[in-house]
Amino acid sequence: MSKVLPLTGNEAGAEAMRQIAPDVVAAYPITPQTELMHRFADYVADGVVPTELILVESEHSAMSACVGASAAGARVMTATSSQGMALMWEILYIAAALRQPIVMPLVNRALSAPINIHCDHSDSMGARDTGWIQLYCENCQEVYDNVVQAVKIAEDKDVLLPVMVCYDGFILSHTVERVEVLEDHEVKEFIGPYVADRPLLDLDHPVTYGPLDLQDYYFEHKRQEAEAMRNCKPVIQRVAGEYELLSGRKYGPFDEYFTQDAEHIMVCLGSAAGTAKAAVDELRDAGEKVGLLKLRVFRPFPAEELIAALSHAKGIAVMDRADGVNSIGGPVFSEIRAAVYGHSSAKISNYIYGLGGRDIDIDMMKSVFQDMKDGKYAEQAYYIGVRE
Amino acid sequence: MAKKDDMIQMRWHSRGGQGAKTAADFFTQVAIAEGKYSQAFPEYGPERSGAPMRSYTRVSSNPIKLHSAVYAPNVLIIVDPTLFGPVNVLEGLPHDGVIIINTPMTPEEARKQYGIQGYKVYTVDATRISLDELGRPIPNMPMVGALVKATALVQLDNVIEGLRKSFSGKFGKEVVEKNIRAINRAYEEVKGQDA
Fold it and tell me: How far is residue A92's CA from residue A187's CA, in Å, rounded to a whole number?
């Protein structure tokens, strides 16, 4: 039995964390993540959860404490945004390479400079090759659902990789929406008790984490990490299937919205995907064959699945809320174009939008579809919603 | 195929400290408790007390996909009428839009004062009501009472029940009952005039 609550994205994340009740949480406040951990800290202070909350002096320490606690054998979570994750940087790689199933809500916020507290994806997109699984959320319901699923994905013995649940700062973190939450016992049974794989504190089976690993074995360990990322795909699907049985809500590597017969498809992730769906609704009502592909899983990148979903399109427009600053285009664009290369004759263009929280509305989304209809494609990225 | 639904979009114009964000969030809570879909979100800027700010609310019987700001509100809630002038509060309001203004003026007087032509105009002296009932100029909850009367989007009983449920723990029974009196008074006292 689920219940309906009015929750912000941060409250939805905190509600999921309360039900997960991790053994250890280490965190440092940063806008717009702060309210999530504020609420979770209340649960700890009120004795609602038995979690050991470690309030550290920086995000570098937060992630370091998470790695230590996870290696020791605890179920571990943290959360951050923007500069906070930038400060975690070196430990992000270590968490993944030591195969620690840490789960971290990442409340997307633009990176400095100029300083800005609002949403874009420059923080999480910069971390796309750190070895973390990345799930992106369209609305507050998905924040809740993805955080719950993330625990089960991360801890699967075929995976053992950390998961970042990315959701848009303010646009979701501070927006109240209707969220269906599961019963506490349903979440507990879904994720199951945590049994750590080779914990440091298992003194009968001593192990070493993080030793020097030179020419002789480093490559093999990285190869295994890459294999784990590949192995995630069926696990993510299996977890989504089990979650659907429990919640009635369907998840996949991506969401296909009127794409099957679409001539022109937009690819988008995050909260803007909802606005894009509303644009598709209006254009479909006008008889236009348009569709939206909303990416949920960005890491591992679902290339094979995307080929099947996109290759019939005449045109593809890829939306990026982060600029590569590389004279080529945004990160989602680069990967989509690489994925369909040799499999599709579709023309592909890239739109950079919404940096630093710049709003993107339904008319801008419609203009992207209009560009495709007009045969307007460009090698260089278009910038939409910016003053040139 | 998805069809245009019955979504109503609202924009609140207020100044920091007047409680518009709390009121917009609370209105959404009530709508969700009634089984509707609803969204509430403020436009975050420099959060200074007294600075002009906007909050947005959407209500629908279908899931709400949009995550953009509200550019064409069906309902405008002017918590602070001194924003007429410094802010183009009427921007994007369609011809059948509804405006609810916190002012001691009648709708006719408000039309003249603020140069409002067309639209449906409601006025309520929310600041007076909050001073009378709470002893403080926090006009947000009376504006909710006026909004409920003007739009009938949610039931007044559910607003009162929701207030007791959500705020009793934080503010205590006495403050909540004062707010309920303020909401009821605004609901009774709000005056409307068609275009």
Answer: 27
pLDDT at B57 over 70: yes
**Any idea what the CATH number is for the domain that residue B150 is in?**
3.40.920.10
Interface predicted TM-score (ipTM):
0.94
Instruction: Tell which CATH architecture fits domain A2-247.
Output: 3-Layer(aba) Sandwich (3.40)
Residue A283's contacts (CB-CB under 8 Å, 6 or more residues apart) are: A290, A366, A369
Q: What is the pLDDT of residue B48?
A: 78
Distance in Å, alpha carbon of B63 to nearest chain A alpha carbon: 9
Are A168 and B67 in contact (CB < 8 Å)?
Answer: yes
Structural domains in chain B (count): 1
Q: Quick one: pLDDT at residue B47?
A: 66
Predicted confidence (pLDDT) at residue B165 exceeds the cutoff of 70: yes
**Residue B139: domain span:** 8-193
What's the pLDDT at B4?
A: 54
Domain assignment of residue B3, yes or no: no
Number of A/B CB contacts below 8 angstroms equals 71
Q: List own/partner pairs for A125-128 with CB under 8 A and 24 or more apart.
A: A125/A320, A125/A322, A125/A330, A125/A331, A125/A332, A126/A86, A126/A322, A127/A85, A127/A89, A127/A92, A127/A164, A128/A298, A128/A299, A128/A331
Closest CA to A365 of B39, B65, B14, B38: B65
Length in residues, chain B: 195
Q: What's the CA gap between A277 and A293, in Å, rounded?
A: 9
Decide if A281 and B65 are in contact by the 8 Å CB cutoff: yes
pLDDT of residue A141: 98
Does residue B1 lie within any of the structural domains?
no
Q: Is B107 among the domain residues? A: yes
Give the mean model confidence (pLDDT) for residues A78-87. 98
Write the CB contacts of A292 (distance below 8 Å, at least 6 apart in sequence): A255, A257, A258, A259, A265, A266, A267, A268, A273, A276, A277, A280
pLDDT band at A361 (very low <50, low <70, confident <90, very high): very high
Mean pLDDT, to the nearest integer, of A243-264?
98
Chain A residues whose C-beta sits inside 8 Å of any chain B C-beta: 4-6, 117-118, 138-139, 168, 170-172, 174-178, 271-272, 274-275, 277-278, 281, 284-285, 359-362
Please check whether residue B151 lies inside any domain of the structure.
Answer: yes
pLDDT for position A277: 98
Peptide bond just before A32 cis, omega within 30 deg = yes
- Paired with A52 in beta bridges are A24
User: Residues B6-25: what's their mean pLDDT?
Assistant: 95
pTM over 0.95: yes
Average pLDDT on A38-52 reads: 98
pLDDT tens digit sequence for B98-130:
999 999 999 999 999 999 999 999 999 999 999
Of A176, A277, A359, the CB nearest to B65: A277
Q: What CATH number has the domain spanning A255-383? A: 3.40.50.920
Using a CB-CB cut-off of 8 Å, the residues of chain A touching B65 are: 274-275, 277-278, 281
